[in-house]
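Lab manual, section 2.4: Encoding a predicted structure.

Procedure: take the sequence of the chain (832 residues), apply the prediction step described in section 2.3, and record the output as C-alpha cells. A sample record is shown.
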Amino acid sequence: MRNVHLLGASALALAIAAPAYAQQTTGNSLIDEIVVTATKREQTLQDVPISVAVTGQKTIEQAQVRDLIDLQTVVPSLKVSQFNATGQTNFIIRGFGNGNGNDGIESSVGVFIDGVYRSRSAAALDDLPEIERVEVLRGPQSTLFGKNVSAGAISIVTKRPQFETGGKIEASLGNFNTRQLRGTFTGPVSDTLAVRVSGSLNKRDGMFTNLTTGNDVNDRNRWSVRGDVLWEPTDKTSVRIIADYNKIDETCCAVGSILNGPATLAIGGVLGKPIGDPSKIFDRNVIFNTDPNNTLSGKGISGQIDHDLGFAKLTAITAYRNQKSASFQDIDFTGADISNNRTANTIKTFTQEIRLASSGDGPVSWLAGAFYQDEKLDTGRTITYGSDIRAFADALSGPVPAALLGALPAAIRPALTGRSNIYALEFLQSLATPTLVRPGSTYFQAGQGINDFYNMNQKSYSLFGQVDYAVTDKLTLTGGLAYLNDEKKARSNVVLNDPFSSLNLAAVPQFPALGLPGNIYNALGALQFFYGNTTNHAPVNYPNATESGNLKGDKVTYAVRAAYDFGAINAYVSYSTGWKAGAYNLSSDSRPPNANGVGRTANPEDVDVYEVGLKANFPGGYANLAAFKQSIKGFQSNAFTGLGYSLVNAGEQSVKGFEIDSAWRPVQWLNLAASVTYLDAQYDSFTGAACVNYDTARCPVNPLTGLRPNFRNLTGDTPAGIPKWSFSTSATINKELSADYQGFLRVEYNYTSKTHLTETTPPNLSSFDQNVINASLGVTNTPRQLEVMVWARNLTNDKYLISTFPTVAQDGSYSGYPSAPRTYGVTVRKSF
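Recorded output:
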C-alpha cells in the first residue's frame, strides 16, 4: 500500500546521489537499478530506451539548485535563460526551444510538475518544493506527452506524503543579503490518510545598481506554500490532492549597453541624459530612469487517482491553474524618459489526463491514454512615450537646411519665425497638415504610444498509446502512436495613439520633391515605430471579414524503437516524430495575411529524430551514450527586433550530435561524474528570418523610404544560441569524520563553448563562452540529522552575457543581460 519508490539519479548525478539512494551495493559498485518514469511507467534508467538525465534530491541539495534556472548546471544539454522580466524564461534542449516573451507561443520544451502540464515557462519558476527527482527527457516526446514537447520535456516529481512523521527545515544566509527559509512536514492523519505541508521564503538584495535612482535591481522576493494530501483507502487505490500558491514581487531585470549607436549617443550628447557605458557592462550597474518592477502569482490544485484494476493500472490526473503577471519597465534603458512599457497577462488552464498501463510479466506490455487542455489567456501591453520623446525625435531627425525653408507655405511661416533651428518634424508637420498641426505639439508627445491587447482561448486533446513486445529475453521492440488536435481562437484590440506612425509620408505632395538630405528622410522613416512598414499605417484588428481568428491543426505522431540487452551494455535504436501546434503572434509586429510585414500566425512544428544509444554498466560506474540527428520543419522562430517579435517559420532546422553521461566511483569515498553534449546545428532552409541593422548585405536600407526589407535568408547559417560543446563534470569526496559525523566536498565545473547568442545582434558583440565553477562543503551530524553546508556558485566570478538584443527604438544600438556574479553562503538543514 505504501510503495517505496527508488529515487532516480542520472549518470551525471548518480555518483553523488548513490550513497543516499542505494538499495544494495557490491564492493565499489554503484546501484544498478535507478527507477524513472520517463515513459509514464516505471523503468530503470539503464533500461529505458531514450536519452534522459535524472537529478536526485541529494544532488539538488548539495549543488544548491534552487529553481529550474540552476538545474542547467547539472544537465549540460538543458539551457535555461531569464530575460527582461521574471516570467520571460526560455527552456532549450539540444539547441531547440522558444516561447519566451510572446504569450501566443507555447514552449517547445514542456514542463510537468507531478504530472501536471505547465503551459507557460513562467509557471515553473517558483522555488522547487521537496523534490524526489527531476527528469529531463531529450528529443521529441509528443507520443506520450502531447503537442508541446517537440524539443523535449522536464518532469519534476515531488515527494509524496509519508505515513511516518518527519520533515525538514533549512535556512540559508549569503552575500547580497540572501535569506532563504524552506520547510516541509509530513505525517499520518489516520492509517489511510497522510499529509505533507511545505513552504519557502526567498529574499535577496539586488545584484545590480540603477545609477539613476540609486536602487537595487535583480533582487529576489518570493514565497510559496503547498499542501499535499495522500489517501490510500485500499491496497489497490490511492488518491493524491495537491494545492499550491506562489508569489513573486521583484525589481527585475538588469540590462546593460553593449554598443551605443547614433540614437543612444544622441540621448547622451544632445539630450544630456545618462546612458550606459559598454566598456563597463560587467560592473553590475544599469541606467534606467525608473526601476523595473515585476509581479507574478500562480495558484493551482490537482488531483491524481491511481487504481489497480488487476490487468492494468488506471491513472487519472485533473488540474486547474491560474497564473497572473504584470511588469513595468523603462524600455529605452537610458536615463532619459523616452518610453515605458506596462505588460500584464492572466492565464487560466484546465487539464485532464487519463491512462491505463498494463500489469503482468508477459512478453507484451502496453499503455493507452488521453489528454485534454482548455486554456483562456488575456494578455497585453501599453507602450507610452515619456517627457523626453520629442527632444529625442528632433535629435534623430535633425534640422532642415535653411535653403529649403523657402518652400514653406506663406500661411505657416509665422509659426516658425524666430527659431534658430527648424527640425524636420516641424517642417513635415507644416507641409502635411498646415491647418491641423501645431509645430512642436502634435507628434511625439508624452502619453502617446500604443495599446496592444489580445485574448486567446485554446482547446486541445491527444490520444496516445504504446506497446512493448519482448521478442526474446534480450530483444524488445516498442511502437507508439498519438493523435494530437489543437484549436486556438484569438482576438486583438490594438489602438494606435502615435499620430506620427499613422502618417503616410509618401502622400505629402511637397515632400518627395523637396530633395531633403537622405539622412533626414531615413530618420523620419525610422521614427515610425509602429506600422511604418504597412500600407495603411495602422493596425487591423481581428477577427474581421477576411480573418476568422481561428487556428486549427492536428497531427499523428509515432515512435519505433528496438532495444537489445547485451548484458553489461544495453543498446537501442529509435525513430520518433513530434509536433508542436501553430502559434499566434500576440504583438503589434503581427500583420494581416499577405500584408507587408510579419504574419499573424506561425504554422506547426514537425519534428523527427533518429537516435542510437548505448547504456553500459561496469564495476564502480556507468557510461551512457546517445547519438542523434534531429530536425524541425517549420521551426517557430520568435526573434525580438527592437520593438516587437518577428514570428515566422523556418523551413527546416536540424542538429546532429551526441550526449555522454558517465559516473565512476574508483574508491568508496570518491565519486566522479562527467557529461558532454556536442551539437552541430544548421538552418537547412530559412528564407524568412527577421532583417537586422548590422547585416547590410542582406538587409540594405531603401534610400527612398528609409526602411529595410522585412526578411533575410539564413539558409546554411548556424542558428544562434546553440553552443557546439557543453561539458559538465563534478567530483565529490565523502568522508566519515567520526562515529557521529560525516563530511563531503563537492566541486563542479561547467563549460559552454563560445556561442553567438542572438541572430539579431552582431556576432562580435554577442559571442561568449562560459566557465563556471560551483562548490560546496558540508558536515552532517548523523544522530541529530543536522547538516551545515557552505557553498559558492560561480566561484571564479566568470563574466558573460546570457542573451542580447537590439536596443528598443535606438536603431544601431544593442543591449544585453549580464550573468550573475559570484554568490556564496551557508545553509543549515535539520531533518526529523
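Check your result against the sample. The two ends are 23 Å apart (CA to CA).
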